[in-house]
Amino acid sequence: MAQWRNGNGMLTVSDAREGQGPRAPETPEAPAIPLRIAATYRTRSRGLLGQDGIDGALLITPCGSVHTFGMRFTIDVAYVDRKLNVIAVRTMKPGRLGLPRLRARHVIESEAGAMESWGLRPGTRVSIVQEETDRERH
User: Fold this and answer.
1) Which one of 28, 42, 58, 127 is at 20 to 30 Å from 69 when CA atoms are compared?
2) Does residue 115 register a pLDDT over 80?
């Protein structure tokens, strides 16, 4: 299991059934999506509150449910298990309380409509690559 740290990374979406056969020729390659990672209590609590939007996505870990009280925009929320399989995807308007997902270990948030354009839906798998910080390179 990965040990996540606050920072940046890249998110890619792939079909969880990929190993069962070749990808369809008309399926484009998965785009790399800019990702912010919130892994400490403080950054998880803050999330997207007080922001007017987000370029890319936000990974909140560990997390099993979210709320949108104090949010300024509608978001897409993907609940992800320990193996990075997407369990559920929901669109949440500001001022809502999301139901907890028992198997969810992480939550990915983005602007409403973004996840559909990325092909992120229940049954897909995501890959996350966290960028190294200057401290880790030395």
Assistant:
1) 127
2) yes
